[in-house]
């Protein structure tokens, strides 16, 4: 193959990689609700418009302190060893916040998803 073909292939691959990166790094639309799932069970549905703080405890003594402030939600304290969930910071939508050691997930829900669940 000629060098200009390799250059063309690399440019196309670069464009594809940048596009995928932008897609996955985009914050998504702002959610109005969040669903807290612990060990596979929904334990709480939270209105992100109401500031609050609560603790989600696991059966084996683990915990996550969840804080809702200014339309965003975050894990502000956790008993897990890696603290990836805490490092995520305050979020208002996009990819779920996950604490694998404590088996907790915060899912973002839009208004339509809540309405559909209520019937």
Structure characteristics:
single chain; 119 residues; alpha+beta; mini-chromosome maintenance (MCM) complex, domain 2; 3-stranded antiparallel β-sheet; 35% strand; elongated
Overview of the structural elements:
With 119 residues, this protein is an alpha+beta fold. The chain has one domain: mini-chromosome maintenance (MCM) complex, domain 2, CATH 2.60.320.10. It is 29% helix and 35% strand. The strands form two sheets. A four-stranded antiparallel β-sheet has the order 2-1-7-6. It has a three-stranded antiparallel β-sheet with strand order 3-4-5. A hairpin with a 4-residue loop joins β6 and β7 (104-109). The longest helix has 23 residues, at 3-25. The relative contact order is 0.18. The model is unreliable at 112-116 (pLDDT under 50).
* Fraction of residues in β-strands: 35-45%
Task: Return the average pLDDT rounded to an integer.
Answer: 84
Query: What is the CATH class designation?
Result: Mainly Beta
Q: Helix tally?
A: 3
Q: Which structural category do the helix and sheet elements fall into?
A: alpha+beta
Number of strands: 7
Order of the strands making up the biggest sheet: 2-1-7-6
Strand and helix order = HEEEEEHEEH
**Gap from first CA to last CA:** 60 Å
> CATH fold name, please?
mini-chromosome maintenance (MCM) complex, domain 2
Radius of gyration: 19 Å
Q: So, CATH architecture?
A: Sandwich
Helix content: 25-40%
Weakly predicted, low-confidence segments: 112-116
Task: Using the alpha-carbon principal axes, give the shape.
Answer: elongated
The largest sheet is: 4 strands, antiparallel
Any idea what the CATH superfamily is called?
N-utilization substance G protein NusG, insert domain
């Amino acid at each position: 193959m000629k060098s200009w073909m390799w250059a063309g292939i690399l440019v196309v691959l670069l464009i594809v990689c940048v596009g995928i990166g932008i897609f996955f790094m985009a914050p998504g639309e702002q959610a109005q609700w969040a669903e807290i799932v612990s060990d596979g069970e929904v334990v709480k549905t939270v209105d992100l418009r109401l500031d609050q703080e609560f603790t989600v405890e696991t059966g084996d003594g683990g915990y996550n302190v969840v804080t809702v402030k200014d339309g965003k939600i975050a894990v502000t304290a956790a008993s897990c060893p890696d603290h990836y969930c805490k490092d995520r910071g305050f979020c208002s939508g996009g990819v779920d916040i996950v604490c694998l050691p404590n088996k907790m997930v915060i899912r973002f829900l839009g208004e339509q998803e809540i309405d559909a669940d209520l019937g």
